[in-house]
Amino acid sequence: MASHGIRDKVAIIGMGCTNFGEHWNKSTDDLLIDSSSAALASAGIALDDIDAFWLGTMGSGLSGLTLSRPLKIQHKPVTHVENYCATGSEAFRNACYAVASGAYDIVMAIGVEKLKDSGYSGLVVSAPASDGTQATVTAPASFSLLAPAYANKYGVDEAELKDVLTRIAWKNHRNGALNSRAQFKKEVSKETIAASPLIAGQLGIFDCSGVSDGSAAAIIVRVEDAHKYTDRPIYVKALSFVAGPAAGPIDPSYDYTTFDEVVHSANDAYKQAGITDPRAELAMAEVHDCFTPTELVLMEDLGFAERGTAWKEVLAGTYDLDGELPVNPDGGLKSFGHPIGASGLRMLFECWTQLRGEAGARQIPGVGQKDSVKTKALTHNLGGAPGACVSFVSVVGSELD
Amino acid sequence: MTGIISYGAYIPYWRLQRSTLASALGSGGAKGARAVASFDEDTTSMGVEASRIALRGVSEKYSPQSLWFATAEPGYLDKTNANAIHAALSLDISVNAFDCLGSVRSGIAAVHAAACGTSIAVLSDIRTGLPGGSDESMGGDGAASFCFGSENVIAELLSTGTSTSEFVDRWRTPGDQASKQWEERFGEYAYAPLVEVAFNEALQKANLTAADVSHSIFSGLHARAVKAAPKSCGINLDTLRDDFAATLGNSGTAHWGVMLANVLDTAQPNEVIAIVVLADGVNVILLRTTDALSAHQKQQDPSLTVQAQIAAGRNDLSYAQFLTWRGFLHREPPRRPEPDRPAGPPSLRTAAWKYGLYGSRDESGFIYLPPARVSLQSGSIDKMEMVRMADIRATIATYTVDHLAFSMSPPVVAAVIDFDGGGRFQCELTDVDPATVKIGDRVEMSFRKLYTQDGIHNYFWKAKPVRAGVK
């Protein structure tokens, strides 16, 4: 399979991200206007300067009109993309390719989701007409299948695993407490997390990501044009997107301790970016911590820990803000919140912020400085359920290779 | 010689102790328990389960002409309920499926019709009444299925007798949740002569006397009339067989079928069984067991006898849960959208899967649930054979308890199960205690009603634990 990538061909020159949370007073239109305005201001350009748009939303609107109507875009191409919870990343990936191809000079990738207007708990996804035989379990139930399978395979007892999951939630809340844009801006004690009411399997309410509204946007140009707009562009090193045969739920050999799709997309992305030791080379990673066991398993799938050891690394603080490889320094889906179509771009926003040294109280030590050794960051975004998902991995960096 | 060649009774898992009625309502509370169909069962799904048991006892060559389904509590009007049973049993397209609906006497009609040839009669009922009434406490839920034919007959049909009379004893207007009954003593008066007429007719046609009867089954919703009937027939009271008043309650249309299945579980060859059903008249059926019954009993799974199913029941259903399941108590639902109605066209396209639980198997032996057209390994298209999974047992690979998902009876217990011989499937568990589920537990498939939306019943399969002591 050929996957050549577009390493160092395009760059991000501006980004915007709204606060995530329960925006009772803001519509989808408002969120789009706010994030796009912030991104344009960040790049120092006007809406008219954008040649084409990629809009990611899973359920907050259909077609390019969802963006062109509120922004009053004057007859430009607006592409609506959807790829489950990786929708925002998919908007970004396609926007990058459009610039790399030479078709456009300046494009915007923007993601949005308005989840809190549904009136329901958790995520609600409308499905096409069906025969009614599909499993009706909720997202937390699907992902909760990872926990007993992981514990069983690696001989971790139930109480110990609960400590591991609790520590992941605790870490992401602690990071989110330093982030003014996060949905949950406060630390939560491990005792409170561990004692929260059960939602599915071993997962309590604090093991689940925040259901929220929000939007984020990025402006992308060719690398050779980047310095016209900013002294500190962020270069795209790798973009990988994988959809698998969704065979986990039908294949007895699948053991619910890994996401094959993530392994494939990570390997592809590392090859595109020339990364051989991700744990040592990356300055940070934003990963799809939709539920705490997801982050645990991702540490192994992304090569941040040997198989069967991520639970020990979590307990050792390897992925803390001041650890060896900070993971979800902005609080992740857990405390930043998870407005589906915006999340992939929100992850990139944290890379943009950290690699430019603009993260303030949560700035990772030694990252984002002129003399920083580690200049690359990773985002990982997935959609679906264990055994049947889509996975996106990007690598971005502040230096050209 | 025609008669019954195989049979099955289905007793739902749940029991409501009648004492719970007294503690909830402050009155009533007879002794014993009643059987309760789960929230995901209806008369159609229970009919499927009883028929699956019955069909285990027939040869592969058994080719029924018709399936006759009788119930007083149908899932649908206008639409034939028997068709879902036909589909779940994967009967051939050429086999008829008919309903006999509405009255308790319909069960007799189904058996009369089926006994005329090589056909299946399915009797099923869910009985309830207004809270605090005797129908609620003394009713029961269950189903029975009988395969008729002329080869390997285990109980020969000797004769029938009948009497019919129009009188107002028990009635229910369509749509009502409970039936009404006239003063009890009137019904007793009206039934008495009808019993004698029908019973004597049957005896005469068979050249038998009451003394020839080894097992007698008296059934009907009028308890006093049923109790008085054996004496007026001149039946030896020692031949009266368990009416399950203490353990299951009266399952109406299906009741005499369940009683007959229980008798057939242990009867000896060459015994006469008398069935007397009091329902808007009286119907009598006389059967004689054959030598083939012994062999049939020997090959039967001991966990599927009526007594074994009674013993396997779960005794701690709360009255509030019972009322909720039967629609008398509207509880706060989870803050989640209700499921979509199952759509007609996809349900037709996937009927073999949805109703028959067929998967597809590729050249390598990999089994796809639901059936797939493309092989995972080779990518070959349409090189598949269909394989029925409904009667294959499975093992739980992993599971979760979902407190958030929409259900009439939360939490939803969802499991990934691996079938013996291949095939993985993610489905709901039913008739299960969430606290005791473990990886490695053994399960078997059960036909259920997942939910009803826009009046459409979403029938599909769930897995339930294989009960202890099962071979």
From TrEMBL, chain A:
Domain (Thiolase C-terminal): give its ranges.
255-385
A Pfam family in this protein? Thiolase_N
Annotated signal sequence range: none
- Domain called Thiolase N-terminal: residue spans: 10-222
Against InterPro entries, the record matches this protein to:
Thiolase, Thiolase-like, Thiolase_C_2, Thiolase_N
MF terms from GO for this chain are: acyltransferase activity, transferring groups other than amino-acyl groups
**PANTHER family named among the record's database cross-references:** ACETYL-COA C-ACETYLTRANSFERASE, ACETYL-COA C-ACYLTRANSFERASE
Q: Identify the NCBIfam families for this entry.
A: PRK06157.1
- The protein depicted here goes by the name Unannotated protein
UniProtKB/TrEMBL annotation, chain B:
| Pfam families in the cross-refs | OB_ChsH2_C (PF01796)
**Annotated GO MF terms:** acyltransferase activity
Q: Which SUPFAM superfamilies match?
A: Nucleic acid-binding proteins (SSF50249), Thiolase-like (SSF53901)
Instruction: Note the InterPro entries from the entry.
Output: ChsH2_C, NA-bd_OB-fold, Thiolase-like
Instruction: Please report the stretch or stretches of sequence annotated as the ChsH2 C-terminal OB-fold domain.
Output: 387-448
Protein known as: Unannotated protein
Which organism was this protein described from?
A: freshwater metagenome
